[in-house]
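Dear U.,

For the methods section draft, I wanted the exact inputs and outputs in one place so we can describe them consistently. I've listed the two proteins in the order they'll appear in the manuscript figures. Please don't edit the token lines directly; just add comments below if something needs changing.

First protein:
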Amino acid sequence: MTKWSVGLRRCGSSTPRELLSEPPAGTPTPPELANRTIAAKVVVADDLAVPTSSGMAKAAVMTCWDLYWNSYNWAELPGHPNPGSLWHQPKTYYSSDFGGMKMYSYSYLANCGGYARHRIYYKSAGDYYKHHDYEVAADHWQAVKKGSVHRYRKVSYDGTSGDTRNGKYTG
């Protein structure tokens, strides 16, 4: 038994036999594996790019008047609901206002100036627990999807000037 298969078995998984054995001599190589080779030693890669996560905000707002989704439960562009002001009050959107428990919270926040904080929560045993908390810098935007099971959820935004907020609950 190889070191790889022992590790898999400890996790409670079974290891497919194809991973543990060489194919019989003369077996054709599948086209998607034709240019790959098996290394005799462990291969180490240095200087790899760091992947971005959903917790990071992306630079350069598309525009402050763009909405992220085609369909949404709430949408606030700068100047909503008062066109004479770009200021948005802090606001929380509850899944119970949109049909009850949902599997996923989708939320978008574009910060076109000022302070903007983006928080997503789920409810368990009567209490809300923070699932995501991130301060979106000026001239940055962030789209976040959180969830996997049916729960009551909420999305909160802090008040700021010139931001766009929208989101939806699905599932």
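Second protein (the one for the lower panel):
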Amino acid sequence: MSEKSERENTEEKNLTRPDKSIFALEIGAFSLYNGLIGYLLAELSGDNIAAYVIYFIVFSFHFIANNRILHLTHEDLYTKIGRWVLAFSVLAGWILYETTHASDLTIAFLSSFLTGGIVLNILNDELPDEKKSSYPAFLIGMVFIAVLLQVLIK
């Protein structure tokens, strides 16, 4: 929707950005996504400090990539409003986790939803185009994540 709106704005209105309604929709969706990350952080890492550190590192890179993409797409709107809304949504998710209780089934459902969201987000925005990809970089990233997961599991 963002790319379509940007194309239409370029052709019809001589603008290089998507409509503000698309911005609001994207920020709303990413707010829910970030809130879910904040909500599940404590649940998924338990009392393991190493797990917290690993989640922090992994999600930091993920948030940096999302920040870059949203900034390139929406520029000033994102800088003035969007990034603050997204930062607050992680905090709001954590506060919600601390003040409520969810069943194991609900946590499992939310975890699977988050995992799917992460995979879709990475496939859509973070992986390079086919011609700009690097198999060695992909392999190094896979090995790095596998090692991190092994540290978490132990």
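Candidate sentences for the figure legend, describing the second protein: The mean pLDDT is 79. The helical segments are 2-12, 20-45, 49-74, 76-99, 104-126, 135-153.

Thanks,
Y.
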